[in-house]
Design brief:
The chain has 4 helices and 9 strands, in the order ββββαβαββαββα. The protein has 235 residues and is α+β, with helices and mostly antiparallel strands. The chain has a single domain, classed as 2-Layer Sandwich (Ribosomal Protein S5, domain 2). The chain has a 5-stranded mixed β-sheet with strand order 1-2-3-5-4. A 4-stranded antiparallel β-sheet has the order 7-6-8-9, sandwiched between helices. Strand 4, helix 1 and strand 5 form a beta-alpha-beta unit. The relative contact order is 0.19.
């Protein structure tokens, strides 16, 4: 069987509908909402602030801490347990690594920047949505950043290279599936996250990377528009 048409009717190089907003959580230093299809992420930033306990402080630099959390009834299938699990810890770690290249943490010695990411609804691409929301929230908090970073999952379903896989495509059973989350800083082309689940050829992987640059630039434009709208900056 050949995968000829996507379940939701999108083109193979098309993302699901995207919506982004900045400044959505009143008490946070910076915050954002990011939705891609049926996946929704909220991010809240607190800091830079003095790190406690003091023995964790580093006089040479600040640190970034990210916490990723899917709410109990956010996904399909069984209820997610509210306690931290191996998956949430892993995604928290890779989120930190995807965001750190944006920041000069040496400007904040002995300090910490905390990023909390909550997902009330998920339909694939949750780690990428969380990174996109966190990038907006960090900018909203007023931290000096080298650029925005955006993330999206690309991959292969059967013989087709696809952008922004949804749950049905991840669960496709009539052929091979490869799921490749990618985060990138578009101005430099630096890849800050690259993971892969599944099999893909070298030429197919090259096509994925080429397509990812165009898709991530579109997402970054949406992120920037959210910040412009927040602060009413005219182009």
């Amino acid at each position: 069987m050949v995968y000829k048409k996507r379940y939701d009717g999108r083109d193979f190089n098309e993302t699901r509908p995207i919506e982004a907003k900045a400044g959505v959580i009143e008490k946070a230093d910076g915050s954002a909402y990011f939705r891609i299809g049926g996946t929704v992420a909220y991010a809240a930033v607190y800091g830079p602030r003095q790190l406690h306990p003091s023995h964790l402080q580093d006089p040479r630099t600040g640190i970034l801490r990210c916490k990723y959390n899917m709410l109990p009834f956010s996904g399909r299938g069984e209820r997610i347990r509210p306690a931290p699990n191996r998956r949430s810890k892993e995604i928290s770690m890779i989120t930190e690594k995807a965001l750190i290249p944006l920041l000069n943490l040496e400007d904040y010695p002995n300090a910490v920047v905390d990023v909390f990411i909550e997902l009330p609804e998920t339909n694939a691409g949750s780690r990428c949505a969380g990174i996109c929301a966190a990038s907006i929230a960090l900018a909203d908090a007023g931290l000096i950043m080298k650029d925005m970073v955006a993330a999206v999952a690309l991959g292969k379903v059967d013989d087709k290279i696809v952008v922004d896989l949804d749950y049905n495509e991840e669960a496709y059973e009539d052929g091979d599936v490869a799921d490749i989350p990618i985060a990138m800083i578009p101005s430099t082309g630096e890849i800050t996250l690259l993971q892969m689940d599944g099999k893909i050829t070298k030429n197919e992987f090259r096509e994925v990377l080429k397509t990812s640059k165009k898709t991530i630039q579109k997402i970054v434009d949406i992120q920037r528009e959210a910040l412009l709208e927040r602060y009413k900056v005219k182009k």
